[in-house]
Amino acid sequence: MIKKISFIVVAFLMVAQAGFANGSDLFSYDRSALESDFTEIQQLEDYVIANGNLSLAEVQNNSVDVLTGINFEILETASPVGAMFSIEDLDWGSFAWGFCCWPVGFFVVAINDNKSSDQKLSYWIGLGVSVVLGAVGQVAGAFAY
Fold first, then answer.
1. CB-based contacts of 105: which residues, under 8 Å, 6+ apart?
2. Residue pLDDT, tens place only, 73-102
3. Which strand (E) or helix (H) includes residue 7?
């Protein structure tokens, strides 16, 4: 009986979700803006290759008209995920949402635009720790009997 009710609930939710997923402009984009951005990138690439594969610092030091539309501050602050993250940056509240109550924490932290990247990363670390500890507990429990 519970399986039938679960199946009906899941089927209803899938049908309801399909009704909301019908956004026709979901994959629309401004082709001219995209081509303009790629033109700037192509010009930068051509400049770097023509001048012997310059580094970012060397490109910034040279004042060339091709480079005026490019924001180099974004490149300086960009880093691989977690490269600049340390234990001091861990937000324990977000970690607790991921560790203890991840379904609600997903809405409270992970997809919340008001949360910082450190808070979101702390949530995902908490969720990962929860999954790992849960898996270890399941394996240990299976061998206990």
1. 94, 97, 98, 123, 126, 127
2. 665 555 555 456 778 888 999 999 999 998
3. helix 2-20
